[in-house]
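Loading example: each entry is read as two labelled lines plus one structure line.
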Amino acid sequence: MIVMRAISKRYLMGDQEVRALDGVDIDIGRNEYVALIGASGSGKSTLMNLLGCLDTPTSGSYLLNGRDTATLDDTELARVRNREIGFVFQSFHLLPRMNVLDNVAQPLVYRGVSRAERLRRARESLDRVGLGNRLDHRPNQLSGGQRQRVAVARALVGEPSILLADEPTGNLDTRTSSEIMALFDALHRQGQTVIVVTHEADIAAHCKRTVRLSDGHIVEDRVNPERG
Amino acid sequence: MQAFLEAFRAALVSLLANRLRSVLTTLGIVIGTASVIAVVSLVQGFSESIKQQLSELGGSTLTLEAVNTNENFRSGKINTIGFDDLETLRYRVPGVGAVAPIMLVNTPGISYRDRTVSTEVRASTADYAAVYGRFPIKGRFIASADDQGRRRVAVLGSKLVDDLNLPKDPLGEYIRIGSEWFRVIGVMEKQGDLFGFSLDNYVVIPFDVGRALNGNRLRPFMQVSFTIDDVDQVDTIRDRAVRAVKASRPGTADDDTFKIQAADSVVKQFDEITRTTTAVVGGVVGISLLVGGIGIMNIMLVSVTERTREIGVLKALGATRRDILVQFLLEAALLALLGGLIGIAIGWGTGALIASLIPGFPPAAVPVWVILGAAGFSALVGVVFGIMPASKAAGLDPIEALRYE
């Protein structure tokens, strides 16, 4: 599903060229459960941005479902993000002025889905993450764990190819973290492709495969042992 | 369409989320629009009332008047309308209906008992009432018999009754005009004021009596109004009348010694003047709308900065540049439109209040086109000044925006 070949991303920081990613090759198939790990500055955030089509590589090719995203313009990238990617962020990034239901329904706005249909699908999605009530609450009336569930529901509402989570437990306590990871596990079992960017080993341990980045290179790519 | 509706909703939600700020931001637009509407409503009300008074003369009435320039007065060769012109109109122009001359009679003043006032003494015929559409509310108007019999009778404008201290029912009383005594046979209906002058300060006497008082001067100060039988033929008949009058004045090659115009051409001229005034005032006050627009631009820029992260999230969820642009443009336009609508309400109220506080001032009037124009223009101001902030928002890089603290 994801085929990345010789992906490089270079930035200019002042006069200096920074190689955030340098010749990365990675394949991720349908229904994989992958952890991207690495220290800060390792390039894992850059890789996540590229995977999520928030950015395009300096060189190399990225085929997402057979389509080369390196050639897409802004509007086409937005379209790919809307249909293929479901983002979950560390700090939830819910829209503060909307209630839970509208937050979850928001991605469907950009597909021209009617309001009634949007809300129906948002409810379904919230059911999937175990939030059937409090739908008319504002995000700031919810706990961190609940907020992250809303964010996951929002990521899932458009039935994306990939659920892309950037440090999804970074702002949560241990118990809530494991609840969220349990939710990811369950989604994975239901057939969802999940990619989690993290620096925590026990979070990565939930995943079936671990990809470690360092200095813009993939230094390790292994299948995790089954957890007992 | 869905996306547009949703952008509209989002814009509304975000305006409501910052009610106080929204109202303060749009205050410039409110004040600008309110001033425009207040001023325009007063000007329009004024012009409405004048137009109404003028149009009571009717579009089917034409008036023959002498034209004099400063040069004429200096050289003493003053053009006037004469009795021959009256005859011409009466008998030589087909299509002319009733003809009513008004001749001004020179008099030192008119008196009743020991009270003397100066007024306009008009000598006219029985057709006066029909041609001008003015009728007595008390008694009767001058009849043909009064004219032929050279009866010393007078019909008073309503103001004179008060000015002369006449009894409430002045019919049958005698007043003195110059050195002659006249019996009051009627009081005309009230017309009100125009430009602060009473339109009811006059007295009408039979035409031939006035002629005698003027000493049968050949060309007294006179104008002739006449009705036409077929309103649709007003231009044809006027041309005919112009030719006939000109033909009766051999020696004057040009036709600038007199003019024949319809009463509603005065209305049209006046219309033109108010339109210009309204446009100028509108333009001047419109500048304050631009100032208001700059205020909106400023706050929208602040708002875009504040909501950078939110914009990043929307982009991550699949909002295109266009989606973001439309949302912020709509927000700016709505903000300005809201100010415009509040301004229209306040302006209307202020105009009405001012009009009612000044005695004798006609009621304020706000034409629909002014309301639509003000609302449309304020929304336009919003769009124009929203373009810069909105395109700033639309152009944000999603990664940078998401990372923004």
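The CA atoms of residues 19 and 127 of chain A lie 43 Å apart.
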